[in-house]
Amino acid sequence: MGWTYKVHGGVAAGLGAVVLALAALSWVPAAAPLLESQWLGVTAFALAFLSHLSAFARVAVARADKHTLGRAFRCLPGRVRAGLVALIVAGVAMTVFDMVGARGL
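Below the sequence we write its predicted structure tokens.
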């Protein structure tokens, strides 16, 4: 895998971690006044959108299929793969907890 893919993946993982941290901070009652501004959500959405758009463009230009994408993930070092899986699990867990909490209200 080329170094540009690794850089792109690292930037996307970093942005994802920042967005997850901000989402987790929104659950802390003391941090609520800090997170009430609308620019934070808009910025997080814009960064995630640009990251996804560039990833989809790279996949389309490379004409990659599922097998190629799976091989690209498997060639990453074990700690990096574990970190990415942890980000995915944390995002899904936070979404589920938020949906369950909202339903209870």
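DSSP finds four helices and no strands in the chain.
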